[in-house]
């Protein structure tokens, strides 16, 4: 209690104001306590002559003096806080800040007094430059640091990168966790996936908002956050840091913070790309604008390519560029045009290539655009176009009256070159994967089964990355009815998923997510063997075990009771299943 008392009166003595300790001393050393109390009240009470006659009235009403003084104090404090805020806006800049500095000088010794602290904090909040000595005192005291306004903290942070890092770090961890939770969410849907929220909605997220508030208009703090993001991206290769880099800039853009936007050389490029991401398509007008920015990088300023590549490495940007590429390829088939003759397509590839090369560029600090392999344009993309043509031909063949030779089967082989491209060329692999997502979304089972074997070995295992598997599992819900067929399940599970489950925990999780959603569609015999194959091992993480238990519970509920089985001997037939709503 003693230390709490001391805190209540902290700093009063320095100002020559009597405090509780003084009263205690007076009473200890006096002969007439009541007189001493009266004298203390007179000396330290509210010095208004008109008040002396009014106070006995309050005594008659049984209002304690403490209550009266407290209410006067609160009233005065409110007035003072209002006055401080007003001073911060009036008169010449130098004069107003001079007044506030004087006030801070007088009041700072009371900063630890809980009742006065808000006033001192308010004065500091309105000072664009709090004296260094005061900032050091605040920084050294945990409670004071906690209590001060973000405006004051910014002044502390800008010269203390480590302290700022401690504040930002938990937010960045939270951000990555939120992204991963969406990718592994149990809700599997083709309509609501990782890429569904608009850029504007994403920027309202808690972490982006908090970081925006912490940075304010402070360029130095903004640069520090970008430096943290670059470092973490290099250390972890986690592309979500690239998303945050773009979201943060656009959040400051939304608030029209020109102090920062005008000095970030990526601002206009990011703004234009943001509009493309919103539409999930790069139209011709914006394509030319983006090209203008890339072509406009001057000699000696190549370092900006490192930042642009990070903006383009954001999965939302890659998604938009890849979807646009697939759309362009389909258009080219209709126009009888080769990829190399389409400047728009070449620009999309150039941006994909810059985005995919972000890590290498920032790591090597060699700032030049990666060279595009000619074969990507002359061989790989025409090959994808030939797959589109195969589909058209097959569909037309199906409609023609069949001759004696019977229907033409769907082509089942894939060119060896396709598989090789997916293994060795990062851009080819990314576009190839998006083409497979595209045919799955079109419910094109034939094309899907034809190309699936090429996914077992891909460039840096991209086909087993979380973003691809998240999108693939969503699109596979459209092929739900195919899961009743042994052949389809064997190709998909044994031929693809299970080849990586044991070495990649994330694949194990995605397969379990898919089965939790579609188990009622899978042929019972297949389901049983999958349940065995997917059983967690000792090394499996909590998430896998939890998903596996959920699946086991669901399957238990579906098993018929022994009584039912004896009554109906024809139980060899799979149980009719109740169709479940797609949102499950």
Keywords:
NELFB factor; 584 residues; elongated; 32 helices; 0% strand
State the gist of this model.
The chain has helices spanning 2-8, 20-28, 33-44, 49-60, 65-87, 93-107, 117-125, 132-140, 142-147, 150-157, 161-183, 199-202, 206-215, 219-236, 240-254, 258-261, 267-279, 284-295, 304-313, 315-335, 343-356, 358-364, 374-399, 416-424, 426-441, 445-451, 466-476, 486-501, 505-518, 524-533, 542-558, 562-567. It is mainly α.
Indicate the radius of gyration in whole angstroms: 35 Å
How many beta strands in the DSSP annotation?
0
**How many distinct folded domains?**
4
- Which regions have little confidence, pLDDT < 50, spanning 5+ residues? 565-576
- Gap between N and C termini, in Å? 57 Å
Shape: elongated
Q: Please outline the major beta sheet.
A: none
SS content category? mainly alpha
Average of the residue pLDDT scores: 87
Strand fraction: under 5%
Percentage of residues in helical conformation: 55-70%
How is this structure best described in words?
By secondary structure, this protein is mainly α. It folds into 4 domains: 1-44, no CATH class; 45-153, no CATH class; 158-375, no CATH class; 413-552. The protein is built from 32 helices and no strands. Helix 6 (93-107) runs antiparallel to helix 7 (117-125) and helix 13 (206-215) packs across helix 15. The two termini are 57 Å apart. Residues 565-576 have low confidence and may be disordered. It comes from Ibidorhyncha struthersii.
